Amino acid sequence: MMKELLVYKCEVCGYILEVIDLGKKKLIENGNSFSRTITVADAKLICCGKPMTLLQANSVDASNEKHVPVISFNGDTVTVKVGSVNHPMTPEHLIKWIAVLYGDRIQRVELEAGDSPEASFHIGSERNVKAYAYCNLHGLWMSQANK
Ligand SMILES: [Fe+2]
């Protein structure tokens, strides 16, 4: 089970890929200035002629907390709202999806303009949840909560 969501984005066209299995990591030489341990496949992810970017999930929002997912538990359901102040949901600026990781599982809800920036997930007896939200303009956001 992946302990975190690993998503790559093409900064040109917005294409997004999710890593499901890392396979074997290897030390990748990248010129002689630095090297890092990633998969061979990740080192070769190209879209629109450019290397795809591994998105780093932000957890602190300096601009009035519109992006950090707010997690609340209700019985065997978890609700994720983005954020403590509702994020815009216009065609130009919106939360495109919300995902939760828990135990050995992942769930994702895709959102559209006009939807509320929130989603609910049935998680059974799981007590530890990581929530991710993706804004088309401001990238990936994450928070974590225990029941
Ligand atoms: Fe945003």
TrEMBL record:
EC number: 1.15.1.2
A GO molecular-function annotation: superoxide reductase activity
InterPro entries referenced in this protein's UniProt entry, alphabetically: Desulfoferrodoxin_Fe-bd_dom, Desulfoferrodoxin_Fe-bd_dom_sf, Desulfoferrodoxin_N, Desulfoferrodoxin_N_sf, Desulfoferrodoxin_SOR
Keywords from the UniProt entry: Electron transport, Iron, Metal-binding, Transport
Residue intervals of the Desulfoferrodoxin ferrous iron-binding domain: 60-143
Domain Desulfoferrodoxin N-terminal: 5-27
Domain of life according to the entry: Bacteria
Pfam families: Desulfoferrod_N, Desulfoferrodox
Reactions this protein catalyses: reduced [rubredoxin] + superoxide + 2 H(+) = oxidized [rubredoxin] + H2O2
Entry's family note: Belongs to the desulfoferrodoxin family.
Function: Catalyzes the one-electron reduction of superoxide anion radical to hydrogen peroxide at a nonheme ferrous iron center. Plays a fundamental role in case of oxidative stress via its superoxide detoxification activity.
Name listed for the protein in its UniProt record: Desulfoferrodoxin
UniProt source species: Pectinatus cerevisiiphilus
